Structure formats: structure tokens, C-alpha cells
Amino acid sequence: MAEGREAEYHSNDFRWEELREEVESDPSLRYHLSPFSAPPNSAPPPSPDAWRSFHRRHSTGKFFKERRYLLKEFPELAPSDGDSVANVLEVGCGNGSTVLPILRAKQSVVVYACDCSAEVLETAKEMIATANIGPIKHRFHPFLLEFSVNPFPNWLFCANCQKMPLANPTGFFSGANPDNMSGSTSLKGSQCCIGGVDFITLIFTLSAVPFRKMPFVIKECFSVLRPGCLLLFRDYGLYDMTMLRFPVEQRVGFREYLRSDGTLSYFFSLDILRDLFLCAGFVELELDYCCVRSVNRRSGKKMQRVWVHGKFQKPMT
Ligand SMILES: C[S@@+](CC[C@H](N)C(=O)[O-])C[C@H]1O[C@@H](n2cnc3c(N)ncnc32)[C@H](O)[C@@H]1O
């Protein structure tokens, strides 16, 4: 049985099908399985606002936990010596838990990272600046974006770099020249363009977006990725312990729940995730449940965690 940090990465302590049988035959859990029909005129949950409040409440960075297992799951994020610079886009970066191990792994990696909360981007900058990984000015570029309703900025794409914005009211990176974090960029044609990214990381982020907006987010990820490059995915899996603990009142969609702080959580089956990514044009390289048994140190309670691990590629043509 995996415990503590070790429990966080690739593991198969139990078969997902066994858990499925257990859950689907338990009458007390039946409400998680039934189709969901939204009450008439129900407003969509305002998840980005809830996330901004969440980050305001947790601005000390106490919630920060570097995802040390990330490179074990996704070794391609640490390119071998001699590889050229790789651009990574971390979507929904929070306080930088995923950004930090990526920056730590290789000096030649540059990370662009977006989130809907200006406050958490500040926290991420602080956490990373104090993490003892050397100068990060040219390697870490946070920017503000509500990605469930807005496309990625033009400067991340090659074809559109001429249209990139010149003003930056947020104080975060808004131009194609990574030296420029203040916003007054000068346009110099394609040389100032990032030209798409080599990797996208979607780590515990897609589950925070309303289900109906997921196709938009994935389509945007597809368009900003260079041909042949990878999207690396990890998120909550169907019948994870945290899903089964939600009471019926917090159910806001099929496999979709609203936490008491207003943030959303969706739980992915492999089939649904496969459909979402293949519909956007991706090719599936890896997709599986990661099932981990761990023990709560304080209560001694056993926990059955289910995550989904995926790697998807944008085809060359
Ligand atoms: C659970 S955190 C994951 C953070 C990070 N990827 C990690 O590995 O720890 C999800 C993040 O997505 C951000 N987020 C949620 N919905 C968003 C949206 N619509 N637009 C931009 N950011 C969003 C939240 O602010 C939060 O920081």
C-alpha cells in the first residue's frame, strides 16, 4: 500500500473495475450514478470567482505542495542534454506546484503559466523566486487569463503574432518578448513570437471547469500546441474517494459537484476524456486510471484515490 508522497504518483494498488463494481452495487451511492437534469433557470456556477476567493483566503502559500512526482509521470518534461529550449504552457497554474518541478528539471525549459487569479500568480512568482532554482526572469512567464471563455493570447501563436496586444493593464506578461513583463512591447515580426508551445500541462485544472466548457478549453490547447507535441494530463478519476463523499445537494451535473467554497470538481471516466480529446483532433498516447490506497495519518482511515493519467499528441499534419 502506498503512503504519503509516494502515493501520489503512478501506482495501481487496486483495479478500477473492482472499485466500480463496489460503488455501482452500493444503494447508498446510487445518486452519483443517476442522470442529472438541471433545475429550470439554474445559473451556471461562477467557478473562476470562487477560485479567486479561494486564492485570496489562502494567499500565504500554505497550500503549496510541489508536485515532485511530476517528472516521474512525465519524464519528457526533462529533455536530455543537448535538446533545444522547450516552451511549456501550464494551464491553471495556481501557486506553481506544477511549474516548479518543471523549471527545476532543466535550465533550458521556459514556462508560460496562466490562471484566472492575479493574486495566485503573484504567489506563484514569489514561491518560484524563493525556490533556489537560479534566475527565473527569462524562464517563468505568468499571465492572467480566464481560459474557459477566452482564447489564449495571440503572442503564443506564430501566425497571429502581428496582432499581439500592446497594452498590459495587469502587470503580468502580455507580449511575445519574454524579457518584457511590463507590457510595452515592440513588434518585430515573427522573431518576437513564441510560435506555439512544445508541451501543455493540464494538471488538476480541467476538472475545475464546467463540463460544457471543456471542449472549448481543449480546442484552444490543441491550437496553441506545435504539431507533434504533447499535452500532459492528470486529474480526478471517476469514483475517487472525494467524489463519493459529496452529498446529493452538491451535485450540479453528471459527475460534476460544487464544493462548499463554490469551486467545481468534475470526475473523469476514461471514455469521456478520450472523446473530449479525440474530438479536438488529438491522438491518444497514454490514458489510464491510477488507483492508490493511502492512509490518513491522523484518522488512520483508508482512502481509495483515483486519478486519470493521460498523454495526448497533436498530429504532425
Ligand atoms: C486545482 S488548481 C491546479 C493548479 C495547478 N495546475 C497544480 O498542479 O497545482 C486549479 C487552478 O485552475 C484555476 N482556474 C480554475 N478555473 C479557471 C478558469 N476558468 N480560468 C483560469 N483559471 C482557472 C484556479 O484558479 C486554480 O489555480
TrEMBL record:
Organism superkingdom: Eukaryota
Database matches in InterPro entries: METTL2/6/8-like (IPR026113), SAM-dependent_MTases_sf (IPR029063)
Keywords of this entry: Methyltransferase, Transferase
UniProt biased composition (Pro residues): 37-48
CDD domains listed in its UniProt record: AdoMet_MTases
Region spans: Disordered: 30-50
EC number: 2.1.1.-
Record's protein name: tRNA N(3)-methylcytidine methyltransferase
Organism whose genome encodes this protein: Iris pallida (Sweet iris)
